[in-house]
User: What shape does this take?
Amino acid sequence: MNNLPEPSRVVQLPDGTYVYADTAPVPAPFQGAQVVHQHIHQAPPDRTVQRIALGSGVGAGAVAAGVYFGPLLVGVLTAIAANIALLAFLALILAWGVHTVVKSIGGDAGTAAMKNVRKARHRR
Assistant: This one.
């Protein structure tokens, strides 16, 4: 079994030079407007703050630290905010659960306390 590709044909052009014959299919002729798929990538970071810092005499090391740690700080603060939001949501669910259990189990004392709270709210 021979797994090698077919050898390319060598042809002689009218001017006498030899070239390899192209065995690839010929592309279809142009038929109207082509659709261009343009991939939009993230824009480069804005360097205005760094340029101002360099112009005011801050060293290049401080500017490089700002370039490196600036996005890192934004990411860390975003993660912290997401954690706090999750904890607040859990606290809300737990408070709702406690409220529901107390309301369903509570007897006469709970009903009386609820009436007192309502009266106190209306007196304001």
Observations:
- Strands lie at 10-12, 18-20.
- The chain has a mean pLDDT of 79.
